[in-house]
Automatic annotation (TrEMBL):
Compositional bias annotation for Polar residues: 1-18
Gene Ontology molecular function: tRNA-uridine aminocarboxypropyltransferase activity
UniProt key word Transferase: yes
Entry keyword tRNA processing: yes
Protein origin, superkingdom: Bacteria
Domain DTW: 31-214
Descriptive protein name: tRNA-uridine aminocarboxypropyltransferase
E.C. no: 2.5.1.25
Group of enzyme by EC: transferase
Recorded family membership: Belongs to the TDD superfamily. DTWD2 family.
Alphabetized UniProt keyword annotations: S-adenosyl-L-methionine, Transferase, tRNA processing
Organism of this sequence: Aeromonas taiwanensis
Gene Ontology biological process terms, A to Z: tRNA processing
């Protein structure tokens, strides 16, 4: 069910800024079956449930190529729901000039969302946040392929029960990228109610897949 990918597993790319405005619910081109905004098949488009939420800290999503166009992925939905997000696609980000320039900028502090004994809470962090989008094993390889990422201070969300019921979870607290973005920004800005539209969208995604699965079993 995956769309074809133009990005090889060895490359790193900063995705051109998509137009996530409300009027982008349309095919990529006349023959496309996919929405340009939520990147899902038109018959499964979730744009009606996307609400744009402003936030204070820029968010950078480092996405494994295997997640690009994945029908159960949530990174594109998170990006469509927020006002300051960039998606970088690749496995080894040591050659991503834009990302590494940001990480090396002495005036900017970036924080990596990654569970660690010494990780701080979002409330203690400032500036840019970085999320890894991929399976746990792939995210681990992505992290250790990029020395600049390994040196970043880390933040943790604490003990949370993930609700990502449409994909297999490696452990109970594993979160989808959309859930992670919601909890991260909610904890950091202290306004979970403002970010509630992200979880509403996530609920519709899960429900859509469960309805589809039930229909196939009938």
């Amino acid at each position: 069910m995956k769309k074809s990918k133009a990005v090889t597993s060895e490359s790193a790319m900063t995705q051109s800024r998509p137009d996530f405005s409300d009027n982008m619910k349309q095919p990529n081109d006349k023959e496309s079956r996919y929405c340009t905004r939520c990147t899902r098949a038109l018959k499964a488009c979730l744009c009606d449930y996307i609400r744009r939420v402003p936030h204070l800290a820029p968010l950078h999503i480092l996405q494994h190529p295997g997640e690009v166009g994945h029908p159960k992925g949530t990174a594109a939905l998170l990006a469509a729901s927020l006002t300051d997000v960039r998606i970088h696609v690749g496995e080894d980000f040591s050659g991503d000039e834009a990302l590494n320039a940001l990480l090396a900028n002495p005036k900017v502090q970036c924080y990596l969302l990654w569970p660690d004994e010494d990780a701080m809470t979002p409330a203690q962090a400032r500036s840019h946040f970085i999320l890894l989008d991929g399976t746990w094993r792939k995210a681990y390889r992505m992290l250790h392929s990029s020395p600049a990422l390994l040196g970043l201070p880390r933040i943790t969300l604490g003990e949370l029960a993930g609700q990502y019921s449409i994909r297999k979870k490696p452990f109970p607290g594993a979160l989808s990228t959309l859930e992670a973005g919601y909890h991260l920004l909610s904890q950091w800005e202290g306004e979970p109610e403002r970010f509630a539209p992200l979880m509403t969208l996530f609920t519709h995604l899960n429900r859509q897949w469960h309805d589809f699965a039930q229909g196939r079993r009938r």
